[in-house]
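Translate structure to sequence.
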């Protein structure tokens, strides 16, 4: 899968350094990109960004029909 992360990361209400989530994705054999494209499977964004859809990456995800998930959802995908 290809992930793009945007905004601060918050998992179970706790701020997590985004690099930890990126490392987790890559260790599981996934690709992390910095730009949303047609190849992107998921954009990972925390509230309030996740809820209001602001930011270039989230606008691009909406335009391309890319699924936007929370860091909590990302952790579930990673089996954590």
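Result:
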């Amino acid at each position: 899968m290809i992930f793009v992360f945007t905004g601060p990361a918050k998992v179970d209400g706790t701020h997590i350094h985004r690099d930890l989530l990126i490392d987790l994705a890559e260790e599981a054999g996934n690709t992390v990109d910095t730009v949303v494209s047609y190849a992107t499977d998921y954009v990972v964004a925390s509230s309030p960004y996740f809820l209001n859809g602001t930011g270039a990456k989230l606008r691009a995800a909406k335009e391309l029909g890319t699924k936007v998930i929370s860091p909590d959802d990302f952790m579930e995908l990673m089996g954590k």
